[in-house]
Design goal:
- There is one protein chain.
- With about 1100 residues, the protein is α+β, with helices and mostly antiparallel strands.
- The chain is built from 39 helices and 25 strands.
- The strands form eight sheets. Strands 19-21-22-20-25 form a five-stranded antiparallel sheet. Strands 2-3-1-6 form a four-stranded antiparallel sheet.
- It is flat and about 115 Å long.
Length: about 1100
């Protein structure tokens, strides 16, 4: 049978064989299996430990007759399984796994216990020196149980070398400092891995290990001890590739690239590094991941570099084709492997030292490879197979025929056969490569040399021109379905201007003029078809939304659907959240003046791209679509199987979308992608529970289909927003989600789930929007609601009266009165500047304001006399039963001692979600959300809760990737607001602090068809490379710093420190608002 693959498979197989090992031959066979296993999995601690234990048991069994071995087998066993062989095997195993810093102690502890048992019986000086050396070596290797090993060494010295105890231990400890520092740097990752393993979360485990590997591979750039750094990184790769990533071709490729880089680094720096055998590594890699074409191609290339013979390299190719998994992910792996094989054949034939038959062998091999790939593709895809869009094997064959055989006509016939395939004939890239090849052939021909060339009759001189290359460009322009004819026309005109005769140039001008007219008509037809399809989709979406208009309806007992800003809602204080349903699309459209200018219609300026490569990056997608429009935002999603990916791309305008749609069914690398309009995919969702996060939303719609992305709005300018945009993978899933509109959640929230359509936003509702609410200031402190109702009811029917009060119930002098009609409210304005009780009232119509940069959330408990801060804000007070001694008002110091600031909170997280994670650690008196400073301020009922909360919250995640930090209010107020960028930054260097403007966007030269990217060649000039091209895209998720561990002394200081010059009160409204360009302005 074939050998097992993977650590667990080997152990299971060997365990089964060892059960039936009842004689010496069977036991020797098990030993041979173990040898094969450690060759296949050299970094597996489990296999090495089982191997050494098995061998040690054979050594002990053959020493006496107690194991029941026959006498003859005992004698042979003592020769085969000797004591020295056993100890040597333990040593070999330790060397193989010593840099597994998390668990190598399991192996070493067992080995050293055997050594100490033998020393206890012999007590020889040689044995003492040997074990001392083992301890010295072990303590200079980073590992998780270093302290235990040190204690073992201390006990050993006390027993066997007490005279030299102090000097030996001091010397070893000094030499081990580098090892301890190395482990301390890696300990945070190890702790995260242990937590993920204990929780059983394999996805988190994989994510942490990948992050760990990324960090570890970067350490080679700045090492003091490169040998140690490399050994630790290789040890980590060994752990990953024998464990959780044993069958992950991406991690195998990462390891291969790292080792290749090490070889290059070693050659440059002249440093001797312990490198594994790369050929053995690739043999293991292709055994574990036989479907990976890139790994097979690297295997072939490495064998060629190592000088392997033709037949040895050919055996790798046969091993690849014999595996049944090479086409697991389609033809990509097959083409990668055959490209490496054909490249090897070509280079072998071009080698001046190659044997005479090398050229013939290469030709036969190249033609056979082309035939094999074609048969493979047709077997896999039947008649749908259209060949390699990059025609890699054909290009290798053409180069071979041109440069090795000199058969230009035969090579040209291959170009012509390729031109007959519609997949390539429609590609401007193919025609430009064909043209460049013809120009190379033209340039390689020697020019006629004559000092006095003859002048023919008529006086015209003979001029040598590249007519065949010209004909190639003419054929390309004649293709009516060419994806980017404009580019080919430019090259054609430039070529004729540079090389051709005047009459040919004249003909080219005429031909291009006519072709441009035809292309313009073609573009009009395509745009009309795309517009018709788009209009049909919009009409379908509108028809689906007609049965139920967008309304803010609530169930009995649920929050009102109005936009009242100040009306009282029962339960506000106890729930700690505002449960008023927002007419949020209107709200987001007018939150700030500059947001009006930045309004974006995401629904109609987005496309969904599917069947992207599984390892696609944002940078690659941006480069691919760069010449088809300006990308605002980009969400990338990898499918569960990891074989493909999808992206939701938002462009600047609908014109950009129409251009990008022309990439539908084109190729992105090896994948034929689908590009469809993003209409009908995004829903406007609101009136869900205030504590809902992304996980809640995904779970809410899990039965409808796959949720592609969720966008929460920024709360920097309005903390009362409670809505989000949910994008689905397909229109059917989005339609199913709209059927949940009106569903009651948690018994009181009536869900809104409607198609996002900013053009049909709803007018605002409520007393303020309708002009029915009046604001009265300078109200007498002793006045009650009934007093005010009696005065204002003279002018109309009063719906409600609310007086603002502090936590102690004291009247703050401001009231809001709501009338049944706008006319009645206007009549009541006559009370302005009139005397009411002992004060002169100031009455005006309440005005709407969407600028709510912070949210204050108080407990429903009230103290008797709340303190007032210097700026007039109501200070936080102690809850009942927690007043300071004597019943006096709490001092600023007491308030500060029970107040904590939470930092690095995303500006999309509301106060309800913050309260949900904080209140479990203690009773909250007051919570102030400050998205303008990326955090929140919490006053607890007692100081002890501050310590508990700090311990629990520091380093925890409120959203994936955002670790919270705790500190003082002063630290929070020093932080600036979160800045998000939707696009690749332009230019180089750091932007000036005072700059509040984005750099001007690049001019987009939209071709509407074809693939982007600069091309170099004869006959035209390439555009200059933009400096901003290499900037990494992505959304910046905040400016929070990494969490810093606190000592006991720092926690104590948190309880008792009074601060520097502050009164300790929480400030509700300070801090500026930074300019922001972020998703979540409330608009699609």
């Amino acid at each position: 049978m074939a050998n097992p693959v993977g650590e667990d498979s080997w152990l299971a197989y060997i365990e089964e064989e060892s059960r039936h090992a009842t004689d010496l031959d069977a036991r020797v066979k098990v030993v041979e299996l173990f040898k094969n296993a450690v060759t296949s999995e050299p970094g597996s601690l489990k296999i090495w430990l089982a191997y050494c234990e098995w061998f040690w048991s054979l050594f002990t069994d053959c020493q006496s007759s107690e194991a029941g071995w026959p006498e003859e087998e005992q004698k042979l066993g003592r020769e085969l399984f000797s004591f020295d062989a056993a100890l040597s095997l333990w040593s070999d195993g330790y060397e193989a796994i010593k840099y597994r810093i998390n668990d190598s102690h399991e192996f070493w502890n067992r080995w050293v216990s055997i050594e100490l048992e033998q020393l206890a019986r012999t007590r020889t000086p040689v044995g003492v020196r040997r074990i001392s050396h083992l301890f010295r070596d072990r303590l200079q290797v980073p590992h998780s149980s270093w302290d235990n090993t040190s204690q073992m060494f201390s006990s050993f010295l006390s027993t066997y070398n007490n005279a030299a105890y102090e000097s030996e231990f001091k010397e070893v400890t000094a030499s081990a400092q580098e090892a301890k520092a190395a482990y301390e740097a890696r300990e945070p990752y190890e702790l995260k891995i242990n937590r993920a393993i204990k929780s059983g979360d394999q996805d988190a485990h994989k994510s942490i290990v990948k992050e760990y590997l990324s960090w570890e591979t970067s350490q080679i750039k700045k090492p003091r001890n490169p040998t140690l750094v490399v050994s630790l990184c290789l040890g980590l790769f060994s752990r990953a590739l024998s464990g959780i990533f044993a069958f992950d071709d991406e991690v195998w490729s990462d390891a291969a690239i790292y080792m290749s880089g090490l070889q290059h680094h070693a050659r440059i720096s002249q440093i001797q590094l312990a490198m594994p055998d790369m050929l053995k590594f690739y043999q293991r890699a292709t055994t574990h991941c036989p479907w990976s074409g890139p790994l097979w191609s690297r295997y072939i290339l490495t064998a060629e570099e190592a000088g392997w013979s033709f037949h040895s390299v050919e055996s790798i190719k046969h091993a690849a084709t014999n595996t049944k998994a090479l086409d697991k992910h389609g033809m990509a792996g097959v083409l990668d492997m055959y490209t490496a094989w054909c490249g090897f054949l070509k280079r072998t034939a071009m080698d001046p030292n190659a044997p005479e038959d090398a050229a013939d062998v290469a030709e036969v091999g190249l033609l056979a490879a082309l035939e094999d790939v074609d048969l493979w593709g047709r077997r896999l895809y039947k008649d749908a197979y259209r060949g390699d869009p990059n025609y890699r094997l054909q290009r290798i064959l053409i180069q071979y025929l041109t440069e090795v055989k000199g058969e230009v006509d035969e090579a040209r016939s291959h170009w012509d056969r390729l031109a007959s395939q519609s997949l390539l004939a429609d590609s401007y890239d193919f025609w430009l490569n064909y043209y460049l090849w013809e120009m190379m052939v033209y340039a390689s021909k020697p020019k006629p040399r004559s000092p006095t060339p003859a002048t023919p009759v008529g006086g015209a001189s003979v001029r040598r021109v590249p007519g065949v290359a010209t004909a190639v460009l003419q054929r390309a322009i004649a293709q009516s379905t060419l994806d980017w004819p404009e580019r080919v026309m430019e090259v054609y005109l430039q070529h004729c201007n540079d090389y051709e005769r005047p009459d040919t140039l004249h003909q080219a001008l005429d031909m291009v003029h006519q072709a441009r007219q035809e292309v313009a008509r073609r573009r009009e037809r395509e745009n009309a078809e795309a517009a018709a399809a788009y209009a049909a989709q919009v009409q379908q979406a509108q028809q689906q939304t007609e049965p139920s208009s967008v309304e803010d309806a609530g169930m009995p007992g649920s929050p009102s659907g109005s936009k009242r800003k100040r009306e009282f809602t029962p339960g506000d204080a106890s729930l700690g959240v505002n449960k008023r349903v927002k007419s949020v699309e209107a709200d987001s459209a007018s939150s700030m003046t500059n947001e009006q200018k930045l309004k974006r219609d995401r629904e109609n300026t987005s496309v969904m791209v599917t069947n992207l490569p599984g390892d696609v990056t944002q940078t690659a997608i941006r480069k691919y679509f760069r010449e088809y429009g300006h990308i605002n935002t980009l969400d990338v999603h990898r499918e569960k199987d990891g074989g493909s990916g999808s992206a939701l791309i938002e462009f600047r305008s609908t014109e950009d979308v129409q251009s990008a749609l022309l990439r539908d069914q084109k190729y992105f690398g090896q994948n034929q992608i689908s590009v469809k309009p993003g209409t009908g995919l995004t829903l406007f969702v609101s009136n869900y529970p205030p504590t809902a996060d992304g996980s809640y939303i995904r779970n809410l719609f899990k039965d409808c289909g796959e949720v592609f992305a969720i966008r929460f709005p920024s709360l920097k300018f309005n903390t009362h927003r409670r809505f989000c945009y949910v994008s689905f993978k397909d229109q059917e899933s989005a339609y199913k989600a709209t059927l949940l509109d009106g569903k009651t959640l948690d018994g009181q929230y009536k869900l809104q789930s409607k198609y996002s359509n900013p053009s049909s936003k709803k007018d605002r509702e409520g007393a303020i929007a309708e002009g029915r609410e009046l604001g009265a200031r300078n109200v007498d402190g002793s006045a009650s609601e009934s007093d005010l109702r009696g005065v204002f009811s003279k002018y109309g029917k009063v719906a409600s009266v609310r007086i603002l009060r502090n936590m102690g119930g004291k009247n703050l002098g401001t009231a809001y009165i709501v009338f049944e009609t706008k006319e009645e409210a206007e009549e009541a304005l006559q009370l302005d500047k009139t005397k009411f009780m002992s004060q002169i009232l100031q009455v005006e119509v309440s005005k709407e304001s969407n600028y709510k940069p912070f949210a204050t959330n108080r407990s429903n408990r009230a103290s008797e006399s709340p303190a007032t801060s210097a700026d007039g804000d109501v200070g936080m007070t102690d809850g009942p039963g927690e007043y300071n001694s004597g019943g006096q008002n709490p001092t600023p110091r007491e308030i500060q001692e029970r107040t904590i600031a939470i930092m690095n909170v995303p500006d999309t997280v509301n106060d309800a979600r913050v309260r949900a994670i904080v209140e479990r650690h203690g009773e909250i008196v007051k919570l102030v959300l400050r998205p303008d400073h990326q955090g929140a301020i919490i006053e607890f009922a007692d100081a002890a809760s501050v310590g508990r909360a700090a311990l629990a919250l520091d380093g925890s995640e409120i959203t994936p990737g955002r670790q919270l930090r705790t500190g003082s209010v002063q630290e929070l107020l020093k932080l600036k607001s979160e800045i998000k960028e939707d696009r690749i930054a332009l230019g180089k260097g750091k932007a000036s602090k005072g700059s509040a403007f984005m750099p001007p966007p690049q001019n987009v030269r939209r071709p509407t068809l074809g693939r982007g990217g600069p091309k170099r060649g004869l006959g035209f000039f390439a555009a200059k490379k933009d400096d901003g091209e290499n900037h990494q895209p992505g959304n910046v998720n905040g400016t929070g710093h990494a969490a810093k561990a606190k000592s006991n002394a720092e926690f104590k200081a948190m309880f008792f420190q009074t601060g520097n010059g502050g009164d300790g009160a929480i400030e509700d409204g300070k801090g500026g608002v930074a300019h922001n360009q972020a998703n979540g302005s409330g608009q699609t």
